Amino acid sequence: MRLDPFSEPYSRDPAATWRRMLATSAPVSYDPKLGMWLIAGHDNVRDVLSDTIQFSNAMTLVPITQVSALAGAILAALDAPAVAVTADPPQHLRTRAILRALFPTTTLRAQQQWGALIQVRVDHLVTDLEQQSTADLMVFAVHLPLYVILDVLGLPLTDAAVVRAWTDDFAQLLWGNPTPQAQIAYAHSSVALWRYCVDAVTARADSGDYGSGLIGDLLRYRHNHDANLTVAEIAALALNLVGAGWETTAGALGHALDHALTEPERWARLADDEHSLSLHIEEALRHSPAIDGWLRHTTTDVTLDGVTIPAGSRCLVLIGAANHDPAVYDEPYAFDPLRVRAGQHLAFGAGPHYCIGAALARLELTTALRTLARRLPDLTLAAGYQRQFTPSAALRQHTALPVQQRPARCPVARYSS
Prior knowledge:
Blueprint: H1 8-12, H2 14-24, E1 28-31, E2 36-39, H3 42-50, E3 55-56, H4 69-75, H5 91-102, H6 107-130, E4 134-136, H7 137-153, H8 160-175, H9 180-207, H10 213-222, H11 231-245, H12 247-261, H13 264-272, H14 274-287, E5 294-298, E6 302-304, E7 307-309, E8 314-317, H15 319-322, H16 358-375, E9 379-381, E10 402-405
């Protein structure tokens, strides 16, 4: 099985590669160019993501492209302790339990805590769009989750631009294929993002004024005792949530908007039919996951689907290919909101590391799509639009989503719930 995640064909249409791999290749095989084991197939991917003993998360945030010595020396200052994303048991169980107690993980709790805030953010951004005859909808898709995650953490919105720049660089360093010169710049940005989180948490801890948002909640839980949580652990949790809390949702929102605007009837239904809206979002998550690859590291020899992966191997777990497995989904490459079993997708992972922000992401997607479809009923994809994604081994995000407002050519019936 061969994969070139940075090639132009893959960046334009990764699903075409998944289709070929699933049809012609073994679901578990070694790619010598990447230096990784590739794992495809829905059941294989689910099993790997659920197994935190044999498939460790400790190297999840080690760049997929080997960094230069200079970049590596810079990254040595990113000394965040292992929590959440990069932690294995028992540390992962401990820090995740704390997060679950403070961070809403159900639809109802997310709506109660964040629903009004997200609606305000969406309304402001849509008001800006209403004044434009043409726009890049990825600007909306990026700004909404970026603003929301800052709100959730209790960080100032005035920092949005620099946090976005640092996080974009961090993502490119982790999952892209940067040149040695770019690696140095991205390494500095990654360390700057970490120092930003450390400084934000330390300033509140030292002053005793813990403030609002999740950072304040974590400091109150700490209660000035390292046995509960250290300041560094809180800063690392903030780093994890900043890094994962908006880039992935921006990607998911771009995909959901792209699929919605492809058919005017589909766009109209999302305005008034809550059931159709929910189905659309789940199918978008299945068909076009924002994270379509994830990294794991074997702690022992593991036999998977009849193939033995040696201990100490890096594995690229192909979530996108899993969500397109024809053994699970009929016509998996078609976008079908009425699909049976769409909810079995792995867009948010599986097992102990299932995305803790899934409820928040779904709430953002639901609020954004509903509001846009209601207030901009004549929104369409721009003429000549072609999908293109930022080259990445893991993060699937549109480079642009150009749209325009124009009256529909014929009336479209509205559906109500």
